[in-house]
Amino acid sequence: MLDERKAAILRAVIEEYIDTAQPVGSSTVVATSEIQASPATVRNEMGTLESEGYLVQPHTSAGRVPTDKGYRYFVDHLGQAELSSLERRRVSDFFTDMRGEIEGIMKETAGLLANLTDYAAVVVDDAEEAVDIRSVQLVSLSGTVVLAIVVLANGQVAKHTIDFTVGFTEDQLSESARLLSKSFDGRPVSLARALESSLDPVADQLAQLVYDSVAAGAKSGGRVYVDGTAKVANAFQAVESVGRVLTILEQQLIVVSLLADVVDRGLTVAIGSETGVAPLAECSLVVAPYEIDGEHAGSLAVLGPTRMKYQQTLSAVAAVSLQLGNSLSEG
Q1: How confident is residue 125, by pLDDT bands cut at 50, 70 and 90?
Q2: Are 193 and 185 in contact (CB under 8 A)?
């Protein structure tokens, strides 16, 4: 633990660096904070913080900037900031008005979070695996293409398009739907019964293809919705950093694994190297899982530079994850 003055100086340096992205000197700390000490005293304390790994001096005559260790102390010893009344109203109104299919809701939720924080936002949806399936409806799009509409117990809808190798009749489509409904029967995918056989091999084959598609979609590790990638360009000074971050955000499997790993480690914030992904060494990730009916249903996160506005971002992520889970539980 740092003593009170060192902690106050570290906080002042970090807050100033977050605002300006420029190394912070002792005179600036004295001028912008309520620390009652001379610049010389503050400079000595900053030297100690540097030797202990909380700050680093990029150039001999420059001020200091925070290290990952400094940010970690800052995050661990500060509470969340309160969302403004306007932000709280935006979140509340969004979920009050929330309607439609799960895909649209998740896309719009990512957009809400990106706009609240001004960083890139990610929503990973595992709901189809966690939530009971109320019904599966089959619609013919052509002679060999079927649209499976999966209605979840929370009222949300997922869609799967299946290409069939042979033609089928409406009766065969209805029989396949009956077999699927009996298999799922209000269960999540993980607890579904094996498909029964009918007297029609075409209906059986079609039902199996739909069943496999629904199961694969639910167990694929989650669908990823990203918004705010344009904000990444404003958050990083180096063009190569922007490119590395955007490349990661485009790789769905890495994003899903990254969020799951952070949550499994019990972290709310992963800073720099803590993400375990080398291209994100200059990034921080704020993550929160959300639940539907008490069961894990997915995660959402905000990705930005290590000089992130942590307090505000933590508050926004916590508020949106709670509201999303509650709204989906209520259907």
Answers
A1: confident
A2: yes
